[in-house]
Amino acid sequence: MNETKIKNIEDNYFAPVYEKLPIVITKGQGAILWDINGKEYIDCMGGYGVAIVGHCNKKVIEAINEQSKKLIICHGSLYNDARANLLEKIVKIAPKGLNNVYLSNSGAEAVECALKLARKYSGKPEIIAMTRSYHGKTLGALSATWNQKYRSPFLPLLPDVKFAPFGEVEKVKNAITEKTGAIIVEPIQGESGIYVAPDGFLKEIREICDEKNIVLIFDEIQTGFGRTGKMWACEHWGVIPDVICLAKGIAGGLPLGATLAKKEIMSSFKTGEHTSTFGGNPLSCAAASATIDYILEEKLVDRAANLGAIFKKRLENIKENHKIVRDVRGLGLMLGMELRFDIKNLLLRGIDKGLIMMYSGKNVLRFLPPLVINKEQIHKAMDILEVLVSEDEKTRL
Ligand SMILES: Cc1ncc(COP(=O)(O)O)c(C=O)c1O
Fold it and tell me: Which ligand 1 atom is at minimum distance from the Cα of 257?
């Protein structure tokens, strides 16, 4: 099938919900993607943060191949070795005490589970989410997502969900009532512009939740598995939630979501109250086990911290030299560069020059490259970005 035909078919038959970039990607390896014409790109989109261990990681492929010959589906009502293997691995690396796991198929589902669990455990209906939050687009997760563009066509959403300003402890405190059962927070807000929780914020929220018997949920769907230079972003502030939501890179590219909670919290679910046909299927579990092994064996968490520092320094350098750059934010290999204008044209010109970046709001470039990206690729990507920013500066100033 040629490029035009593929684009026509997707444009005709695929739900028109994605803002498309005009390339047909057919191959990937590590931090590199190739389009249908063989053109090479440095991938700073990383499958929207999924490709942590790199595209087509050999260990993940091996695990998928082996498991696919043995068993692909095994419902949660039967025991399975690949699932047990993953559960043991994930609990071993999880924040301390979060030793009970619900397995699903996506980030939004991991959030759905967390919200239901918090209501069931606390017996209190109200949920406080943060301004600028993103937790997914299913109706429950969407209820805790801030952006009006996503929410307003689908009102009414879940009742008793309200928003407090991210980073402002006093205002969060003021939002709490005797009906508050849960607070849900992303330690670093990814979709709305890469905003890092200010120091002290998560710790104080933790203390308030302890004091008032509120379930603290961290959504680490984008920040987890080493992305920010720690296995979990909450480690940057030494805070452990009651429930953590994981997905994206967990299974090397296969769909898998996980909600981890303290046993006493998870056991408030009774048999049948929250299940999923595909949740914990052996194929995704085997891929996830291989992914976790790879992250640990290849020390990808430290790698994200070290390479992230190099990457961020280059971004900061570009900022210093160009007035059209407003800010650089982020930790590890979860980085953002805010410009003073809509970045669409810059994204498109990046593609022309062999660099794939992504939006995080209309004027923030987001970088979520595979953690296996190397220094040379980072410098090459930043050389391209510097040219793009210089070109823009010439036309805009
Ligand atoms: C922090 C966060 N939560 C939830 C989600 C939703 O995940 P999914 O798209 O897999 O449903 C995302 C996806 O970008 C996310 O970044």
Answer: 10
